[in-house]
Amino acid sequence: MKKILVTGGAGFLGSHLCERLVEAGHDVLCVDNYFTGSKLNIEHLLNRPNFEAMRHDVTFPLYVEVDQIYNLACPASPIHYQWDPVQTTKTSVQGAINMLGLAKRVKARVLQASTSEVYGDPEVHPQPESYWGRVNPIGFRSCYDEGKRCAETLFFDYWRQHQIEIKVMRIFNTYGPKMHPNDGRVVSNFIVQAIKNEPITIYGNGSQTRSFCYVDDLIEGMIRLMESPAEITGPINIGNPTEFTMLELASTVLKLSGSKSELIFKPLPEDDPKQRKPDIDLAKSTLNWAPNIQLEEGLSKTIAHFRKVLAASNHPAQ
Ligand code: NAD
Ligand code: UDP
Ligand code: UDP
What we know:
CATH architecture of the domain at 3-175 and 213-241 and 274-293: 3-Layer(aba) Sandwich
Distance between the termini: 33 Å
Bound molecules: nicotinamide-adenine-dinucleotide, uridine-5'-diphosphate
Strand content: 15-25%
Number of strands: 13
Order of helices and strands: EHEEEHHEHEEHEEEHEEHEHH
CATH class of the domain at 3-175 and 213-241 and 274-293: Alpha Beta
Helix content: 25-40%
CATH superfamily of the domain at 3-175 and 213-241 and 274-293: NAD(P)-binding Rossmann-like Domain
């Protein structure tokens, strides 16, 4: 059994990952500054002898002894990463430097939670790993996109210069239970609005596309990548290639939740990518991975989760 550090472990993806790793018997250290994550996401793990939570900001050095590092710390929702954009870039860049420095000292394998945002507003569709992307370096999304791109650069330079074992995973839009109800991302927004019979907020005309991966599929891909042979560094896309417009997503959420919500249209945020869909051939051939859970099944589970959370009075504020 390994000693495993998960940064951002109290967030949406991090808490699912911690759960999987604890169940597998590993010794898990969850590090989080609780900016967008919540102790509620990990409270069921706190009494497990092989789980430990530490409040820490990854922009500061961290001295611990571990075998593997999953570096997930970073707000993922546009409203949160744009709230303090300088801190977002610091988290991606200085956080990566610290985790790579730690990996170098203790000879740990380190996985970076990168993102489809490195492709920006893509002109190549679907996006293969070989596409270099189309990113605005000075816009509102740049703190996140360029921070993540620079983190990838650091990972490959530490690999070339210091022979660190790296794994770079490009995550496409993922959803599921434990997303924060006020997270601001489209799936949680639409589901919460539908359950409350409030208007569904479509940004722009709703013709932009995304490809949504259910969290269990994503975490399986993440663990397979971490456990893959050392020569597999990535970058590797992990996501569900089935593409939907935001109007299609809204109508599916309305149908599955039996909601009476109407649609309202709001301005499209700046630099909002028009289309996004992963090419997952590399994940299939190198990790033998492909998603199993399709949108209606995943949305139904997520709607059931949010019904419980919203019914249990108001969700505690962060
Ligand atoms: P999230 O916001 O739920 O989780 C991020 C976690 O990192 C939170 O618990 C937050 O408190 C913590 N954090 C933020 N800044 C920190 C800092 N400086 N020090 C320590 N902890 C810090 O988001 P998520 O969806 O779970 O995303 C996890 C990772 O996956 C992120 O790196 C994100 O960029 C990446 N990712 C997610 C998606 C997705 O669709 N969910 C897509 C692409 C990439
Ligand atoms: N670092 C860390 N934990 C460690 C080792 C290093 O947080 O166990 C940080 C350290 O503070 C440094 C960064 O990682 O700023 C990069 O470390 P590296 O050894 O690559 O660079 P250097 O220390 O030479 O600047
Ligand atoms: N979006 C929307 N209504 C919302 C929230 C988001 O129409 O209430 C749109 C958003 O403009 C984008 C897509 O849904 O085109 C996905 O947004 P999200 O913030 O979830 O992820 P990202 O843009 O980072 O892929």
